[in-house]
Each structure stands twice: as structure tokens, then as C-alpha cells.
Amino acid sequence: MFQVTEKLATEKICEGDYVILYLDVRRTYMVKVKTGKTFHTHKGYLKLDELIGMEFGATVRTSLGVEFAALKPALTDYIMKSSRKTQITYPKDTALMVIFSGIGAGSRVVESGTGTGALTTALAHYVKPTGKVTTYEIREEFQKAAEKNLKRAGLLDFVELKSKDVTAGIDERDVDAVVLDLATPWLVVPHAYDALKPSGIIVSFSPSIDQVVRTTEALKENNFVCIETVECLMRGMQVERGKTRPHTMMTGHTGYITHARKALRLKVTHEENNATV
């Protein structure tokens, strides 16, 4: 009889790494570790080169003796703390969109619009290391911001930034999923049908129910099936013994998520076509 001892894996902070400095739930800061750089806060300052060689998760003290936890950034950190020029897709919606899309490592995805790359970041995270996201955006300033955010998250290698109006057509074929977050998704539905492989999935995010109606009509007209629209509401909880209750404020309506699957069109034989004349 023998005992297996599990060795805990540790990861050291290196120069150039991004670190989340956690004070409390409301106060977290993403910083890049660089020699000679100092992080200033109302709780004192912290010399970032002192983090080099520490383990992620270590507790550090500022010049005023206030403790911060030095955490490794998670996917949500890269999304929520991205450089923004547009409204981003919230993690609660992003998570559902990723699940509904059915993507995973090796998947090929077409996305539009890129915006500043929040949703793109999540898609790239799940298709790596062998998959690819091709994202369409017509505004150059958004593309530059998205490129910066993707590079910071270490995901730029899994994304192709394409400067083109997706309503004019999709170049790719046999993709696993088409993911849309734009004002007129119904105009893209016919192009998405051509781009998707059989049984491929389209997912669309829209803040307005009128957009959902027009998109659903286009999906039905273009031989998509399993059409469903959902809304995700998220309510946080204040947890404290004897005082646990829902937060007064909540992330309510942000938008509707519509998803569907491509069904092959029925081939009509010459005899059947004549019979309907």
C-alpha cells in the first residue's frame, strides 16, 4: 500500500506579465509588470519589479502597508478591463453565446462586428490552439483597439482581423459558427447560411426585440432550424451570515441572444418540379 502525494503546480510572475492587483471586490487593477515601474494608489504605492519571481496569488504590501493579492488575470479580466471604444458584450451574454455556438479547440468561426474585441477575445480563447476566428469590422479605429486588446490577452495569433462590411458577404466557407453582434444581423443571415457547414450554428446578439423579430424571420426564410431566443439576467448576492440577500442593483437587460442551426435545403427532382406546375 502506498500514498500518492499531489504536487501543487506553481507559476511565477515574470517581467511583461499582466497581473490583477486585488484589494476588494470593487477595487481591482490590471497592471503590466515592468522593471522600474511603480503602481500608485490611494492605499500607497507598489514597485512592480518587486513582483517578479513571486507566485501568482501572493500577497503584497504597498508603501502604506495595505495588502493586495497579485492574481493571474482570467478571461473575464481581459474582457472587462479591455480598452473600450464601444459597448462590450457582458460576460453573462458572452458565456451563453459561446455555449450556444458549440465551438471548441480547432473550430473555425466568423464574427462581426469586432468592436474593441471583447467577444472576439472569448471566441479566440475557446478555439485555440488550432482554431481560428475571422472577425469583420469596417471601422479602422475599432480594429486597432481590438488588435491591442487581443495582443494583451495573448490571443492575437488565433484571430484574423478583416476590414470588410459583412452585410456584403462572407468570404469563408465550411465554418463551424457565425457569431453576430451588429445592428442589422438579418442582412447577414443569407451569407451566414452560405458560410456555415451543414448543421453549423449562427448566434446573434441584439439589444432590441425588433431586431430579434427581423432576424428570426430571416432565419426561417433561409432554412435555419432549432431557432431560439433567450434573455439572460444576472443578480448578484450579498453573502453575510444573518444578512444574505440579493444586491439592490443588478445587471438586468443587456440584450437578446438568438441561435439557430443550418439545415440543408431539400433537393427537388425534375419530376417533382413538374408535378407542382
Give a structural overview.
This protein is an alpha/beta fold. It has 2 domains: 18-73, Roll (Vcp-like ATPase, Chain A, domain 2); 77-262, Rossmann fold (3-Layer(aba) Sandwich), CATH 3.40.50.150. It contains 7 helices and 15 strands. The longest helix has 13 residues, at 140-152. The protein starts with 17 loop residues before the first strand and ends with a helix. Residues 1-8 have low confidence and may be disordered.
Element layout with pairings:
Elements: E1 18-24, E2 27-32, E3 38-41, E4 44-47, E5 59-61, E6 67-71, H1 75-80, H2 91-101, E7 108-112, H3 118-127, E8 132-136, H4 140-152, E9 159-162, E10 175-180, H5 189-195, E11 196-206, H6 209-221, E12 224-231, E13 237-238, E14 245-246, E15 256-262, H7 270-275
Parallel strand pairs: 7-8, 7-10, 8-9, 10-11
Antiparallel strand pairs: 1-2, 1-6, 3-4, 5-6, 11-15, 12-15, 13-14
